[in-house]
Amino acid sequence: MTYTMMQACRELGMTYQTLKFYCNQGLVPNVKRDKNNRRVFDERDVEWLRGLGCLKRCGLSIEEMREYLDMCLEGESSIPARRAFLAEKREKLVERLAEVQASIDYIDRKQGFYDDVLAGRTEYYSNLLPKDGE
User: Fold this and answer.
1) Which among 11, 22, 42, 115 could bridge 27 via Cys, Cβ 3.0 to 4.6 Å?
2) Cα–Cα distance, 31 to 14 (Å, whole number)
3) Distance between CA atoms of 69 and 58, rounded to whole angstroms?
4) Is 119 helix (H, G, I), strand (E, B) or coil?
5) What is the mean pLDDT of the chain?
6) Residue 3 bridge partners (DSSP)
7) How far apart are CA 104 and CA 44, in angstroms?
8) How far apart are the first and last CA of the chain?
9) What pLDDT shows up at residue 132?
């Protein structure tokens, strides 16, 4: 199957501007053109773009995506380097996940406190306001 830019965008859930940016940045190395010189994408391009979207959501910069692309274009010999690259990114994601979980836990504790105050189970106190009589 061949996709136009708009079809590829719909398939990927990506904006036209983002897809065009990725192409202009050289992140879609095998992009083809139709008889009217418009970009068209095949299944392999779409799968590569899915991967780029995932890498972007993982927090990779355009430069890091380019670095990964360059390794991929080297072929099988670069698999150890790609594996190490992704392992490093995964570790950073695990750290971010722990930070997000700690933030969720904090919000849950605060909401529980507020629920208890509103239900009359706990007396209200504040770390910001002076206590009565201070």
Assistant:
1) 22
2) 16
3) 15
4) coil
5) 95
6) 41
7) 38
8) 74
9) 76
pLDDT at 24 over 90: yes
| Residue 42, strand partner residues | 2
Q: Per-residue pLDDT tens for 51-77?
A: 999 999 999 999 999 999 999 999 999
3-state secondary structure of 134: coil
CA dihedral 42, 23, 81, 87 (to 10 degrees): -90
Confidence of residue 131 (pLDDT cuts 50, 70, 90): confident
Please give the radius of gyration of the chain, using alpha carbons only, rounded to the nearest integer: 24
Neighbours of 126 (CB within 10 A): 7
Spatial neighbors of 28 by CB under 8 A, at least 6 apart, are 22, 41, 45, 48, 49, 52
